[in-house]
Recover the amino acids of this structure.
């Protein structure tokens, strides 16, 4: 075997072109199809039906749905943490970050009595 046969095959056709050239050719093809009347445009009903079919196909895989749901929940949690951290830094109130009391805003420690009521605890 020669070294050329052992290496990766060279890109051919569209794959060998730069992205701008690919876009230019694809754009011309799209314009031509529309001009000839052979291009297909989805009606709202067709698009709805296609989405429904795709949704059924994807949602059949329960482990996949669990994975993407978990990722969404993690992303939402991360966003809320960033939002709460910035709200704390700026002093803005959010549902998870209520406005500071007068003593907290003055950077004074707060005291709360212990459950037994005998001692106070510094927070």
């Amino acid at each position: 075997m020669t070294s050329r046969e052992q290496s990766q095959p060279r890109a051919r056709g569209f794959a060998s072109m730069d992205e701008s050239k690919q876009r230019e050719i694809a754009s011309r093809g799209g314009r031509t199809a529309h001009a000839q009347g052979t291009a297909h445009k989805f009606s709202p009903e067709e698009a709805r039906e296609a989405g429904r079919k795709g949704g059924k196909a994807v949602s059949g895989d329960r482990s996949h749905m669990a994975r993407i749901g978990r990722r969404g929940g993690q992303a939402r949690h991360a966003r809320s943490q960033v939002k709460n951290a910035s709200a704390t830094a700026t002093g803005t109130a959010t549902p998870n970050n209520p406005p500071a009391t007068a003593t907290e805003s003055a950077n004074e420690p707060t005291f709360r009595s212990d459950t037994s009521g005998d001692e106070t605890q510094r927070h």
Summary: Residues 62-89 form one domain. Residues 63 and 69 are 10 Å apart (CA to CA). The radius of gyration is 30 Å. The longest helix spans residues 62-90.
